[in-house]
């Protein structure tokens, strides 16, 4: 960036607002263009009345009896105690949606409480350093986040007390950290980015899997040229799903061991409660086996099986039941995430596992690139906490048939990449500083141009938009991967008659996509009666903020026009 030299003596903060954990890093520009970010410890509740410092902040909220909200490790540990009704977690997946939890909490309010802990930690650091100025901050979001989700993130930052923030896509942050680390270590096998490389970034964390394809080139002046080629839909799949399936497997094993039938469980939610209390142990099994495999054990070897305590309250008749899970059992419990089911899509919207597969987002993205005549990928960049589980890397390498690069510190890579982002020179700004003090900030012409350049580099629409009329097949009105802003008119869309029409908006990969999602269900009453078989047309415009404006035009003598303004990707 042009002002990099002016910032040499300033620090920059990066925050990875994660689904499972939130991580914060800081960086100061050194002399030899090698950034050395460090992870910041965050003050949080580790026990009921005890504050401690941890390198990550679990993105979990606990509502105490006194109404006080505790964020962090203490809240996470409460899950094992069966206190789920007083706990909020995985709220990131609801950003951009009109969701209200218990206690009238919203995803934005939950994110604000998490970011408030980060804000307090930064303020304490500033005071200790004797700085008079609050440092600039970059908060990361998934590449597939739409404008509503980004807007909610910005609103949460404002509610948390931040006055200025930058927003940066998580895969870009992770790439910054990886490449900077290669430069810093002088790795002999470092990839040469002087020629353009097409990379699939596969970011799998605790609760989400974010996959995109980018073209990356770095010129002789260390200027990054990054272009998003395609982005897959935001997938709610991650380490939590591995923990849950392992917990279900262990619970069923306990049922068999003690000859317990489902009929013996009185309350339907009791089984879910037992699964929730077993999941923390399953997370420990996952980490243990990941460590063993990364240290050289083979997948077919008999890995040592640890013991992670007991269930103090299994069922009324059974106290302190020991938990155990061998690696072969763990693989069997989680095998559904590696089988060939991704090739057998389903329209069953009630199937909670339909999008939960290691290869499904890769399959969808590569299929789309092929259909659009785009060339394939040169390599895969694997990051996120679940990247530490070797079978995922193995599956990606076998399917993609290309090298798989791994982030050295996958749970911290995004935060550290965000921290160094202010000192990275790019062809176009990948993160624009937003002044949150102004309700309606007045931008200069230069600032407006910078924002526009950034928006042009953002991911394109991951899915096509379709319209459906009763008793007719969906018709594509906006193609996938379209560059925005854009506008158009679809003639001969459908025919209407009488006093109104009902139609739907869908999002999907094609007209025949079995996993097409309903975005909106519309019912429109006409001002005047319309003759049967009258043509109706759709006009559309997507602005630079990714909001869709539509008009329904009735092509009769009165030429009735109805305005419909919607958020392109809001889920209902």
Task: Give an overview of the whole structure.
The chain is α+β, with helices and mostly antiparallel strands and 572 residues long. The protein folds into 3 domains: 5-171 and 415-456, Nucleotidyltransferase, domain 5, CATH 3.30.420; 239-337; 464-567, Substrate Binding Domain Of DNAk, Chain A, domain 1. Helices cover 27% and strands 29% of the residues. The strands form 6 sheets. Strands 1, 2, 3, 6, 10, 11 and 19 form a 7-stranded mixed beta sheet that branches. α2 crosses α3 (147-160).
At a glance:
This protein has 572 residues and is an alpha+beta fold. The chain contains 11 helices and 25 strands. The strands form 6 sheets. Strands 1, 2, 3, 6, 10, 11 and 19 form a 7-stranded mixed beta sheet that branches. It has a 6-stranded antiparallel beta sheet with strand order 21-20-22-23-24-25, with no helix packed on it. Strands 14-13-12-17-18 form a 5-stranded mixed beta sheet, with helices on both faces.
Find the count of extended strands (DSSP E, 2+ residues). 25
Sheet/helix structural class: alpha+beta
The biggest beta sheet is recorded as: 7 strands, mixed
CATH homologous superfamily heading of the largest domain: ATPase, nucleotide binding domain
State the shape. globular
CATH architecture of the largest domain: 2-Layer Sandwich
- Class of the largest domain in CATH? Alpha Beta
Q: Kindly state the mean pLDDT as a whole number?
A: 80
- What share of the residues lie within helices? 25-40%
**CATH topology of the largest domain, anyone?**
Nucleotidyltransferase, domain 5
Instruction: Kindly estimate the percentage of residues that lie in beta strands according to DSSP.
Output: 25-35%
Any idea how many domains?
A: 3
Q: Segments where pLDDT lies below 50 for 5+ residues?
A: 1-9, 439-459, 567-572
What distance separates the N and C termini? 40 Å
Number of helices: 11
Return Rg in Å. Answer: 25 Å
